[in-house]
Specification:
The protein is α/β, with parallel strands linked by helices and 307 residues long. It is built from eleven helices and nine strands. About 2% of the residues have low confidence.
Length: 307
């Protein structure tokens, strides 16, 4: 199989394990490209891609733009903050106006869950979901699983714990779907107030004790607290959260094994993870960032074949 089973990338839920493995294999080739002196390939010189970001983003937006330019695509960047959306224009009108300029592919981040799925049914373009509300962030999950594969040889059979604000995290949901499809064991760890009610129906266990979770796992993926998506307080204070769920050198040293440490960013140093851990040999956080470009190149390349 050398093509994806889907026209869009709306979420990990719609990908098969074979799709994920194909993306990884293509990303391996692009990883070689981005480490060469000349980092571009002419593969998509006839493709125009619009990046529509209705929510703030640094790493994801830069990563997609870099991936597109590495593939020699023409790139149009759109920021909702300075657009007609502020004047009341609808999402479909915004996108259709952009598509009228002969754009082939849309990469979209939006605060509403399901926005990418909705758009894929309404407009004639390939849609890549760069994060929709608290729903999914598929390319982040792909680059996370790819980074585990790179570090540990395979994802299958590995024990991964996702720690933090599971309730508001699209990264957590996409990671759970991706890791389970690739045969990993997954636990989530954090206060029960930050756990979705349906979490165990996804085939993951909940652990409220961070030390026990770390003793169990091979990989710990540390998430930040999503303050911008919280309408009520879910724990007494940040200090109390950090005491119970912050990853420190002292805690890691108390466990008699090496654990791979991950973080999707942005990092709140001194809250969910200490600076010493974030910058330590156990952490593959910067590898994740590098792998993000290769994974996004692979996704864009494979979906361009559907145009």
């Amino acid at each position: 199989m050398n093509t994806l089973s889907t026209k869009h990338l709306l979420g990990i839920e719609s990908l098969s394990p074979e799709d994920i493995q194909l993306i990884f294999e293509v990303a391996d080739n692009f990883k070689d490209v981005i480490n060469r002196p000349i980092k571009k390939v002419p593969t998509l010189r006839d493709i125009t891609i619009a990046n529509l970001f209705f929510e703030n983003s640094t790493r994801t937006k830069l990563s997609f733009e870099l991936a597109e330019k590495r593939l020699s695509a023409d790139v149009v960047n759109f920021s909702a903050a300075s657009s007609s959306v502020k004047k009341g224009e609808t999402l479909i009108d915004t996108v259709n106006n952009i598509l009228a300029m002969k754009v082939d592919m849309v990469v979209m981040r939006h605060p509403s869950p399901g926005a990418a799925v909705f758009l894929s049914k309404e407009v004639d373009s390939v849609i890549i979901n760069a994060g929709d509300g608290t729903h999914e962030h598929p390319t982040q999950a792909l680059l996370d699983a790819y980074s585990i594969r790179e570090k540990l040889g395979d994802v299958k059979g590995k024990k991964v714990v996702i720690v933090g604000d599971i309730l508001h995290s699209r990264v957590a949901l996409s990671n759970i779907h991706c890791l389970k499809k690739l045969g990993a064991e997954v636990k989530v760890c954090g206060p029960l107030t930050l756990m979705p009610k349906y979490i165990e129906s996804l085939g993951v266990e909940v652990e409220t004790n961070l030390k026990k979770a770390l003793e169990w796992c091979d990989v710990a993926n540390m998430l930040r607290i999503q303050h911008e998506r919280q309408e009520i307080k879910h724990f007494p204070s940040l200090k109390e959260y950090t005491l119970q769920y912050g990853l420190t050198t002292e805690l890691l040293n108390s466990i008699d094994k090496d654990i791979v440490i991950m973080h999707p960013g942005p990092i709140n140093r001194g809250v969910e993870i200490s600076s010493e851990i974030a910058d330590s040999k156990n952490a593959i956080i910067l590898n994740q960032v590098e792998n993000g470009v290769a994974i996004r190149m692979a996704v864009i390349y494979l979906l361009a074949g559907k145009i």
